[in-house]
Amino acid sequence: MDIQREAQKLIKENRRTTEGHRYTVPSAGHHPYQWLWDSCFHAIVLAKFEPEVAREEIRSLLCKQFENGMIPHIIYWTPGVLHRFPWGVEGTSSLSQPPMLAYTVNEIHRNDPDKAFLREVFPSLMKFYRFFIDERDARNVHLVGIINPDESGEDDSPRFDAPLGVPMDVTYKEHLAKRTELVNANREGYFDVETGGRDSFWVKDVPFNTILVENLRILAHMAALLERKEDEAYTKREAELIAGAMRTHMFEEGVYWSVMGTTHKKLKVHTWAHFVPLFAGLYSPEEAEHVIETHLRNEDTFKSPFGIRTVSRVEPAYRASTEYFSWRGPVWFGPHWFVYKGLVRYGYLDDARWVHDVSAELLERNGFRECFNPETGEAYGAKKFTWGCLVLDMT
């Protein structure tokens, strides 16, 4: 298979135009709408060969930004599909997703410099990141909380079983019902964590905060390019405050753990989240070596014949096959991309090459699918799923 040719073909096949807005759906059959971090992944890849289309992907997300700065994790562009909420924008979800926008915009600019585009989108980006800092850190501890597992992008990860109040053997139907209850509870409180939404679910997640740190640093760089000194100082300061709070409240036993509630109780479930801090350089070189040697290369826990397990094989909640669950063990290209970038950042180029090669092998075996059994390589979920295109950015 010519992966580059097939990836470009797929991303064009999944391109849509609605109301003058051009965007890419993750999978025409299973996921026919626009998702926030999926569109970021699409634009990162598009930046390499269609930068103007990448810019349009970002504009389509920003056109649905809420008044308070939040950008919803789903835009239901299909005519007649209306999702009304007490606040927000008609035709969208009421949750957000990992804040990858600044990184993505910077990648577009890096591949095809365009200061006019940076000036155009920068105010919306600042508003987006200020939303999390101002409204998702109610006690000013410099850790941003999520109000639903879906905001992590890993809807059913066992990291969230305890705060969700479900057992490790919960059924998919029960799990989905719990997450839906959270949406209803937050709707009653107008999605304001101060009104009680966080009493039912309030998690400071490692990947979410890590991604926020790295994106704030990039936003500071962008502010410097645009000579916005106050914004540069603000984003630099907030990035380091969050990084420091993560070290204080999340780091233990050589890895970072997500935490819940106002007491920051650690959620000690071994998931691929241990590796995400590599993406933002949050480990010291010695800590990174420990994480990679003890966890990433360990075939009894995370390293499988077909990639990185999203949950350690020793965890009771581990499931190699989906059985409707997707984030309790199967391999995903999104995590592979974050781990690849983190390994390159720390100079572990052989390990990074392995992540690339095993990802390419999955595409050769199965085509562009949603996720994969780490023990057998069997493909699951959506067909013609765009996340496989991220292999083009593992270079």
Description:
This protein is mainly alpha-helical and 395 residues long. The protein has 3 domains: 1-103, no CATH class; 136-269, no CATH class; 282-395, no CATH class. It contains 12 helices and 13 strands. Strands 5-8-9 form a 3-stranded antiparallel beta sheet. The protein has a two-stranded antiparallel sheet with strand order 1-2. The chain has a two-stranded antiparallel sheet with strand order 3-4. β1 (15-18) and β2 (21-24) form a beta hairpin.
Structural domain tally: 3
- The strands making up the biggest β-sheet line up spatially as 5-8-9
Q: Mean of residue pLDDT?
A: 93
Which sheet architecture does the biggest sheet show?
3 strands, antiparallel
C-alpha end-to-end distance: 18 Å
Helix share bin? 40-55%
The secondary-structure class comes to mainly alpha
Radius of gyration: 20 Å
Number of helices: 12
Low-confidence stretches: none
Give the total of beta strands.
Answer: 13
The SSE string, one letter per element, is HEEEHHEHHHHEHHEEEEHEEHHEE
* Beta-strand share of residues: 5-15%
User: What best-fitting shape do the alpha-carbon axes yield?
Assistant: globular
